[in-house]
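Q: Got a minute? One more chain.
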Amino acid sequence: MFEAVLFDCDGVLVDSEPITNGVLREMLNEAGWPLSQAECERIFIGKAVRDERARIEAETGRPLTEDWMRAFYARRDQRLRAELRAVEGALQAVVAAHGHTSGRIACASGADKAKVVMQIEMAGMAPYFGQAIFSGHDLPRSKPHPDVYLAAAAHLGVDPARCLVIEDTGTGAMAGLAAGATVWGYCPQGHGRAFEGLGLPRVFHHMDELAARLGG
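A: Always. Here it is, folded:
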């Protein structure tokens, strides 16, 4: 019986990673870094773009400016508004978690908060999360550090040790574990290799599984 459930956003609640990563790859290619889609995903998924500032500047030969970041956010958000879909079964899992914890759920993302809020609204989940939406951009450190999960647990008034974290990346899972929470890995494809060596007690492949476990 968990007292709170803390969800990552991208890749857990919404299927945004291919969209965001596609825009990032396009813009890095335009800036002079010829990345493949697979390479871009390997380097950036689970991280903030600014976390790779040094590598971006080395590969493009240009500074990572605020103007470039604003252009990236604008192009990304335009594409998300046109194409974003919720992860199949995620809304039902959120409803189950909300019932399981008497409303003590939160979203704790490494992405910028405006994007997270927009995506949760588009997915029809805003009534369940309310103000309990947190971004690593607003804290001293983002994932894999625990700050965003600690902030979410504190907001809900729950000891992190009594929280369940739902993550789809190794980086995010490390953040949840560092916070002292129980972490379950969501892996819709493959065998959960992103979580190898982390000792997660459960890796599941469809959000229906989460809804069933929390709703039972």
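A: The longest strand covers residues 105-109.
Q: Perfect, thanks.
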